[in-house]
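Support case: user asked for a sample of complex input and structure output to validate their parser. Sending the pair below.
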Amino acid sequence: MDPREQHATWVEVELAAIENNVRQVRALTSAQVMAVVKADGYGHGALPAAQAALRGGATWCGVARLEEAQELRRGGLQCPILVLGPLPPGRLAEAVAASLSITVFEPEQIAAAAAAGRELHREARLQLKVDSGMSRLGARPEEAIGLARLVVKTEGARLEGLFTHFARADEADRTTTDQQLKTFNQVVDGLQQAGLRPPLVHAANSAATLSLARSHFDLVRLGIAMYGLHPSAHCRLPDGFRPALSWRAQLSQVKLLPPGRGVSYGHAYVTQAEERIGTVPVGYADGFRRLAGNQALVRGLRVPVVGRVCMDQSMLQLDAVPGAREGEEVVLLGHQLGEAIHAEELAERWGTINYEVTCGIGRRVPRLYG
Ligand SMILES: *Cc1c(COP(=O)(O)O)cnc(C)c1O
């Protein structure tokens, strides 16, 4: 069915692209692939994105929060799921009950998770996070052996993994990443010598997966690249990856305005001549930023957004496409007849990164899958 019959604006996600992107990564590494589907799969929809990634050969899912993992379990996913972020102590039992892998970096968390495991008569699956230089979450490298030993000797807990996260793997200069990798390797070696190396050691995000094979260890954590988006301007996807998401709408009204007419709040734009103005049902509440300089595609041509972006709507200057009519498709992000607006272009315009562009598309914009 034509989505325009049903929705004024919608996001289309090509799941075959996600599946393909994971396959591309599988061809690059012998490590397992964790599909990182936090933040509703970077705005693509967590469950469908995860299912597509699993079809492409991913064996793990990674999320930031307990609720995200529970959503995947409710959706029927039985694969291992790592909650990458911190779990509130009051929710540990739920995590154990859902067979989630839990990130720990402090003795109190280990004790509490193990207690939850004993209570439920099943082992809490723990992964030790080491801060090798991101300065975000994790134990100090010199604490790792002590914590690993604590997990191993505590009944109700199992040491399943050890991991770290890179701060600058998407940059051309490798100095920081090399330093982090060296620090992390020392931790891995220390655990190995103490007979404590867990089965799953991991460090690489998308950027490191693409550019630093030495960082792959047993598993790579694939986020942005799985959605077909470049990790950065310096770390671009090789050929063969494709973006999965496009954001579309239909023109809700087209009108011919006389010269000197103000458009939208504040009349920040005033028509110079008789101008064709179209209204599109997309606003800042949908994640379309309230900044000057936005563009959209109509009939494969770029047209400017004029006047202020409203909460739910925006106006387009349609002089370049005199034939444009109500109901006509508008592309905010994606391809149309050989022209394209990429997430990277929007990110540049909005002073952010492509990650924030797709994560920021509002929940009220329906996701359609094809
Ligand atoms: C979000 C996240 C990832 C994925 O990062 P990408 O740059 O999107 O590949 C990997 N690991 C951790 C710990 C994360 O928080």
